[in-house]
Amino acid sequence: MKLKALVVGCLALGILLLGASGVAVAQQSEKYGGTLVFSNANHYPVNDPHKYRGSAAREMLAPVYSTLYQYTVEGKITEDLASTLEVPSPKVFKVTIRKDVVFHDGTPVRASDVAYSFTRLLDAAVGAQLRAQFQVLESVKAQDDFTVLFTFKNPVIVDWFKEMAAQVEAPILSEKWMKAKPRDFTEHMGSGPFLWEKFTAGVKVTLKRNPNYYRYDADKSRLPYLERLEFAGYTDTALRVAALKAGDVDIDGFVPWEFLKDFTANPKVAVDLSNEAYMNLVFNVAKPPFDNKLVRRAFAYAIDRSKITKLAFYGFGTPVYGGILGYQPWSWAHNPASRDRFQYNPERAKQLLAQAGHPNCFSAAILTSADDQMHIDTSQVIAEDLKAIGCNITLRLEEWTRRVNSGNKEDYLLAVNGTGPRMVDPDWVSQYYHSKLPGFYHRPANYNYPDMDGLLDRARLLTDRDARKKLYAQWEDLFLEDNPGIFLVYRQTGGVRQRTVHGFEFSAGVARTASTDGLERAWLDKTSKHR
Fold first, then answer.
1. pLDDT tens digit string along 389-441?
2. Reduced to 3 states, what is the DSSP secondary structure of residue 142?
3. How far is residue 466 from each of residues 62, 425, 476, measured CA to CA in Å?
């Protein structure tokens, strides 16, 4: 009897100890373990976390860093490091941060780190992606260890601020770690669910599980479940698709369109289609002949967007013949009046070229990515259409990292880009088309339009939605009048995941390129190749 009582007592004590430790309980879960492989056509670059260098950079950094807020899989905003937000006066936001979060080196996350991160984001020398939009900030100061005061030059909308602070490019950095030595960002240190482990620039990134991550699941098991994440960049499309079909890749967010039908018929994978991105052609508006807006307008009439949709995207898209806000019915700033400004009209294009002094057109090269077939196919269709009006347009193919650097240096006459809104709020256009973003590869080169900037700056500060909508429509009218870039196709993006992956969905709409934020809840079943 005594032996039985001793055994029962030991079992009870063990259960009690396990119950007191979420980690101990967690390690018994079948969800734990494995390495999830996530692939992309683009290279995983060396990247300052306050900058934007494409979807691959977002994918690899989102699981490493925490932000004040983040997107849910439905595309809504929820808290990450922030716990409460108060508005003590019209120009001041008081944000309280969680007290249970530590950086990957074990040091606690403090309000001073938040203040440091946003101050760095505003530093012109850093060249942060969100600097132009956050110019409304007067100062960011730590009131105490867990309270941050954001003081604005003018009142701003709370929802706008939360969405801005949810961007992958607004991470909270460790001030101590950043100042310990000069950082070249071949390594990263945040407070997210995964730690930076191994990095081969342009090829592969490996992250490992953060054992001290602050979140738990409904069963009080500590997240994340996966032991590792591996991000693999493929320059060979056929090899990437073959790896996905074989189960060697678990998730790919941008499957080539010519293969989408194969995957939709494959019961071993799940396919997610989303209208989240578009293709455009941008000009260097300071260099002849594209310093003449008549030439830029001629090109807008000369390009058959329906052909791009068919040949480059296999019909998975919508031709865009005007302003981009005209093709966003999900947005409250939807502007149908901006549609159909430049219907395909090669004869009109020839007239404008002659009027601009180029009756026989000219020669030029389109800067485009050599690593992504959609960029190549889009550029080839453009070149063919321009040849039909007498232009000699060639392709300047560069591997992804070099292509981004050429764009950032504004070293091109013409360039094809693929991008998409990263905010629900229409102020997303400031992230691409505000003049205070020099040296950003998505933006038209030497773009400098104070009148357009003024409209965006005013719209950001208004609380009346109808008044804001009018300002964005005015901005779009000016953009289409000057035509520093041409919108081409609103493409459908196809993401594929193996059905051995559970607990993960691609985020909706504008949050799609931040989908890897959700990998903290992903897990692999035992039939996966990577368990």
1. 999 999 999 998 899 999 999 999 999 999 888 888 999 999 889 987 766 88
2. strand
3. 33, 13, 15
